[in-house]
Design brief:
The protein is mainly alpha-helical and about 260 residues long. It is built from eleven helices and no strands. The protein has helices spanning about 5-30, 30-40, 40-45, 60-75, 80-90, 100-135, 145-165, 165-175, 180-185, 190-200, 210-230. Helix 1 runs antiparallel to helix 5 (about 80-90) and helix 6 packs antiparallel against helix 11 (about 210-230).
Length: about 260
């Protein structure tokens, strides 16, 4: 396929993802109030005494609930988004390589939700406790805007969800023979540097506490990725060694 054909295929998969999010957005908006209250719990529980969430513009409450509905739909659509990602790359794989589609979608969804749960129950409460209380005093009170608080928290949730996908990415690459545990071990110095940059980029703020909560899991999952590559890695055989692998990748299927 030409470069333009690949772009056309990518646009098609992105449109399917947008459609899925839009379909899920409608029921999510029905429960947007309950979803908002649940999402804001780690912030509300760590507000200093006398502080509260506020909104400062007439339409801010309405727009915030729309944003809540969008994020809820995005999280619910993760399995479908992973499936569309798979459909984009699958035509370029050999027949036996396509068999990992089920673990790719299943574990991809599970790891993403585990990452979001780790953020919600472990990382976020500690970060909010530090950020909202460390600099509050008798004369300085925290009154976070619901718009900014939600954007901050959603960035954390999405960041941790993506970080927890790293072992799955390594698993897929190792099964395809693109990376090995030995190669990953040799790159650990660069991995530490890239992890620090990624943590700084994914963290919504510049405080060290939030960055460390993001940096440590990245390093841990890099080490876990080395183990995954060692356990499940398989060097890609030459096409001449296996008749099944000599098959040309099939044409791209529509959804």
């Amino acid at each position: 396929m030409s470069f333009l054909d690949h772009l056309t295929e990518l646009r098609k998969r992105l449109l399917w993802c947008v459609l899925a999010i839009f379909v899920l957005f409608i029921p999510a908006y029905t429960f947007s109030s309950d979803i908002f209250n649940y999402l804001m719990s780690p912030i509300i529980e760590n507000l200093p005494e006398g502080s509260s969430l506020i909104f400062t513009m007439p339409a801010e409450g309405f727009m915030t609930y729309l944003k809540v509905s969008f994020f809820a739909a995005l999280f619910a659509a993760v399995p479908f988004i992973l499936y569309q990602a798979w459909k984009f790359v699958a035509p370029g794989l050999y027949k036996h390589e396509k068999l990992i589609v089920i673990p790719f979608i299943s574990f991809g969804t599970m790891f993403f939700l585990f990452g979001a749960a780790f953020c919600y129950y472990v990382a976020a409460p500690k970060a909010f406790q530090f950020l909202l209380n460390e600099y509050s005093s008798e004369y300085v009170k925290a009154f976070p805007s619901i718009k900014e608080a939600l954007s901050f928290f959603m960035a954390l949730l999405l960041g941790f969800g993506l970080i927890f996908e790293f072992p799955l990415v390594v698993f897929v690459l190792a099964r395809l023979g693109l990376v090995t545990s030995g190669w990953l071990r040799k790159q650990w110095k660069y991995a530490i540097l890239i992890s620090a940059v990624a943590a700084a980029f994914l963290t919504p703020t510049t405080d060290a506490v939030s960055m460390m909560f993001m940096f440590v899991p990245i390093v841990v999952f890099y080490g876990l990725g080395i183990l995954v590559a060692w356990l499940f890695g398989k060097e890609r055989k030459k096409a001449s060694e296996d008749p099944d692998e000599s098959e040309e990748p099939g044409p791209r299927d529509g959804f």
